[in-house]
DNA sequence: CAGTGGTCTAGACCACAAA
DNA sequence: TTGTGGTCTAGACCACTGA
């Protein structure tokens, strides 16, 4: 027996929800019925349900039953509001321009952050993000090439996370570092700012649920035009 | 029986950890021993331990035992690690110097952020924070005077949150804005930095659980010496 | 009322860690 | 090898929900 029974049951119920056999908001069979169906004790069945509850997929109501939970707010990308969220919240229209997209050898910092050997290749994308057509952010995204073999440039550059999940990867921990810097000539030109202006810098490393890092992003935001907001 | 047994056991173990009967990093008795001690089945005892694990208070290691987890990051102050936490994590010693502490009239921005009428007075504190005696941060904290009547300068300036809670106030939502700026002459002097250097700026408004804002902080960090880190 | 989830028992066998 | 946590069983009684 490779996996524990309650994990198998967890996966099975999750599949049934994803294939809409159990619909959002509806009640699934009772613990006793499911235990019978899967041929396990009720305690074991409860263990499976508990893990689904922890993931926000199921919701139990005392005396009433177990329900498929509504989709929760995506909290995947850390406590910070994403660029798209913030611009939308401000009534602005976000857009972005891909300025490079190349496979090549990793730099030292990329090797370190992504746990790469020096013979492994990476995909590196550069992008400018805009709010109402004003440049706000310059970002460089690096991804191990082997993770995205066979995926289209279109999918990778416009919705990387969704594309990875559709290919069976699961996103795990996200770590971010935020600091500040002075705009050099290059950044000033790309962002239509002045050399010597203040930039917010952001490093982000995203891992798969296996713990393997899959994305390393370095972004610079024009401080006059952007701020990070979060509340708790 | 008011509370379930596993909650009682949870509380009891938590108390024993807080009173240092079980020390941080040390192993607590095995599940079987604790079940015997509390006169419950092992499954029930495991349920108690599971809740403590979910809170990050205990940590179980297969084949080895159950351990008191290291202190987690204070989550009170939003997802960001606090200054004290970060310096500690880096093996540095945090300290701070109060450079002013005065009651007076609020500025326009203070009136707005703290929802004050213009005849209400405020307490304004300025402080420099250090890591290993290197200045890292200059911050200005403003508090409505009426909220802290009768509290000592010592208590307010060194542990404001604890003092407020001891006086019956409950801390509510925290909102932060992070951006960047260029050091002016004054900031450079206070932080032993150069004019034109990059600073991280942080605005924070903290509310009581009633929704009334009680603290407005403006802080500037020397970007070369500090970064905000958080992960999810 | 009948059915549900919440709690609890007293065992059992397993895989893993440390000695 | 011994002791640990991880999993699992086949019951039980309770409090709660909803008809």
Automatic annotation (TrEMBL), chains A, B:
One of its GO terms (biological process) is negative regulation of DNA-templated transcription. It holds the Pfam family UTRA. Gene3D superfamilies: Chorismate lyase-like, Winged helix-like DNA-binding domain superfamily/Winged helix DNA-binding domain. One of its GO terms (molecular function) is DNA binding. Residues 3-71 form the HTH gntR-type domain. Keywords: DNA-binding, Transcription, Transcription regulation. Coiled coil: none annotated. InterPro entries: Bact_HTH_transcr_reg, Chorismate_lyase_/UTRA_dom_sf, Tscrpt_reg_HTH_GntR, UTRA, WH-like_DNA-bd_sf, WH_DNA-bd_sf. SMART domains: HTH_GNTR, UTRA. PANTHER family: MANNOSYL-D-GLYCERATE TRANSPORT/METABOLISM SYSTEM REPRESSOR MNGR-RELATED, MANNOSYL-D-GLYCERATE TRANSPORT_METABOLISM SYSTEM REPRESSOR MNGR-RELATED. This is GntR family transcriptional regulator.
């Amino acid at each position: 027996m490779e996996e524990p029974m309650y994990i198998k049951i967890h996966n099975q119920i999750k599949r049934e929800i994803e294939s809409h056999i159990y619909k959002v908001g509806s009640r699934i069979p009772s613990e006793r019925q499911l235990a019978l169906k899967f041929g396990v004790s009720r305690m074991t069945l409860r263990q499976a349900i508990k893990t689904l509850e922890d993931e926000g997929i199921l919701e139990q109501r005392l005396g009433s039953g177990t329900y498929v939970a509504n989709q929760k707010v995506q909290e995947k990308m850390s406590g910070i509001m994403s660029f798209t969220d913030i611009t939308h919240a401000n009534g602005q229209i976000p857009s972005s321009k891909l300025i490079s997209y190349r496979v090549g050898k990793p730099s030292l910092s990329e090797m370190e952050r992504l746990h790469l050997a020096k013979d492994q290749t990476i995909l590196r994308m550069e992008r400018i993000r805009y709010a109402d057509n004003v440049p706000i952010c310059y970002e460089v995204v690096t991804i191990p090439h082997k993770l995205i073999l066979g995926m289209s440039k279109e999918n990778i550059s416009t919705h990387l996370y969704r594309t990875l999940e559709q290919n069976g990867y699961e996103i795990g921990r996200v770590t971010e570092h935020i600091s500040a810097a002075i705009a050099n000539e290059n950044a000033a030109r790309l962002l239509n700012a002045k050399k010597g202006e203040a930039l917010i810098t952001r490093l982000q490393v995203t891992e798969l649920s296996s713990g393997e890092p899959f994305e390393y992003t370095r972004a610079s935001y024009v401080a006059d035009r952007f701020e990070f907001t979060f509340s708790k």
